[in-house]
Amino acid sequence: MQKLSILGGARLNGEVRISGAKNAALPILCASLLSSDTLQLDNVPELNDVATMRKLLQQMGVKIEANGSQLALSAAHIDKLEAPYDMVKTMRASILVLGPLAARFGEARVSLPGGCAIGSRPVDLHIKGLQAMGAEIHIEHGYIHAQVPGGLAGGRLRGARIMFDLVSVTGTENLMMAATLADGVTVLENAAREPEVVDLAHCLIAMGAKIEGAGSDTISITGVEKLHGANHRIMPDRIESGTFLVAAAAAGGNITLTGARADIMENVLEKLQEAGATIQVAGDRINLQMNKRPLAVNVRTAPYPAFPTDMQAQFMAMNTIAEGSAMVVETIFENRFMHVQELRRLGAQIEVEGNTAVIKGCAQLEGATIMATDLRASACLVIAGLAAQGETIVDRIYHLDRGYEHIESKLSQLGAQIRRIK
Ligand code: EPZ
Questions:
Q1: Ligand 1 centre from 258 Cα, in Å?
Q2: Long-range residue pairs from 222-225, CB within 8 A, at least 24 positions apart, any chain
């Protein structure tokens, strides 16, 4: 089990290049299933979750050629329409093959993703949407088995009007992909507005899909007979961007992100300014300066464009050493406070009542051995370690490697005293 050793107290200074967005890359990799032509991608991040998705697609028959952050995917010869449990259990985003397989091949067998640390995370909305489009769905032996009447003999999903009971990012992405090849028009209402949904839509449109309204809460897709190959560059990762900015706000310093996009993280940037940071944006560069102890800031997570749940843990870490008290309210997932226990081991003053945490900033955290529980919680613990006095050991950092490309080398470049230990 790999660990990170962090010596707290160093300020962060310098430039860091932002990688492609994990949560755009994962659905876009699955979009390759929608065409027999080659999908050329650029700026694909080098992450464990991306590696898992590549393996999942390859075991179905997708040919993938990789050259650094460039991938060429060809789904000309798919010989298996299944996402097996042993792969799905390590990455819930595997559910994103369901829509494309049902749309192009009329059949799919996808293991039900288990729960995960942050919540039960059902996929009922994905299933309901496909049923509305004419798929017959049976849940048997832990698998979702989707069949389109007519099956491989050319059965085709049909367009439908689908109202989401609640906003679902991958639910919107799965059904948007399925609708691109359906017969007729599909309208997704109460759709997710996340930038990663928009990036996927841009890629699908480049492949010949007819999509309007991506980025709004109503997306309409007019199905076409087939999609063709395309080139697409994955958008920058707004959560990686936010994570580095919060780290610099907590540890103090002056950092510049390059290859970033400020326009999709306005809420996070405003919160950082509220905490006392100075932010300057020029093109794809975001500069943050923090020369004093941060002020505590309240955050309440909600679907985009509100404050992102994937940034909640990181801001909580900053609040533990901020001036004053703050409230953190998590409205998306039912159990996304796993980092609280670990932060308390560093001396943080946090009280939790239901989905609300109250953090009383203290002047100093003391380094200790702590354990990562999920992807963004692990980033939170790294930030706390950077701000703490003495050495912090973060265990189970395989969670971190799922979503952050070479985080310790990027942080070291900024002056952090951080190293990976076996
Ligand atoms: C996506 O997960 C992201 N993952 C998550 O990022 C992110 O936290 C989440 O959206 C919210 O922004 C990817 O994009 C790969 P949801 P997703 O469906 O799509 C409930 C990270 O750290 N729900 O928007 O799985 C669900 O339980 C990860 O990168 C249903 O009830 O999230 C949750 O409470 C973590 N039924 C809420 O909706 C469904 O069918 C939002 O979930 C689907 C979802």
A1: 28
A2: 222/159, 222/184, 222/185, 223/156, 223/157, 223/159, 223/179, 223/180, 223/181, 223/182, 223/183, 223/184, 223/185, 223/186, 224/180, 224/181, 225/181
Containing 7, the helix (H) or strand (E) segment is: strand 3-7
Closest by CA position to 239, among listed 347, 49, 380, 135: 380
**Cα–Cα separations (whole angstroms), residue 118 to 121, 163, 191, 257:** 8, 25, 22, 29
Q: Taking the model in full, what pTM does it have? A: 0.97
The whole-angstrom separation of Cα 349 and Cα 202 is: 44
Tokens of 221: 């897709």
Give the pLDDT confidence of 244-286 residue by residue, as tens digits. 999 999 999 999 999 999 999 999 999 999 999 999 999 999 9
The amino acid occupying position 26 is L
Question: What is the tens place of the pLDDT at every residue in 73-111?
Answer: 999 999 999 999 999 988 999 999 999 999 999 999 999
pLDDT number for residue 422: 84
Q: Which atom of ligand 1 is nearest to the CA of 93?
A: 15
Active-site pick, 116, 203, 362, 380: 116
pLDDT of residue 152: 62
- Residue having the nearest C-alpha atom to atom 20 of ligand 1: 121
Distance CA(117)–CA(402), nearest Å, equals 14
Q: Which residues of 255-293 are buried (b: 16+ CB within 10 A; e: fewer)?
A: bbbebbbbebbebbbebbeebbbebeeeeeebbbbbeeb
Q: Which of 113, 143, 131 is nearest to 52 (CA)?
A: 113
115 falls in which pLDDT band (50, 70, 90)? Answer: low
pLDDT category at 153 given cuts 50, 70, 90 is low
DSSP string, 234-255: PPB-HHHHHHHHHHHHHH-EEE
The whole-chain average pLDDT of the chain stands at: 96
Q: What is the DSSP letter of 116?
A: B
Residue 249 CA, ligand 1 centroid: distance in Å:
27
Question: Is the N-terminal amide bond of 45 cis, ω within 30° of 0?
Answer: no
Contact, 345 vs 368, CB < 8 A?
yes
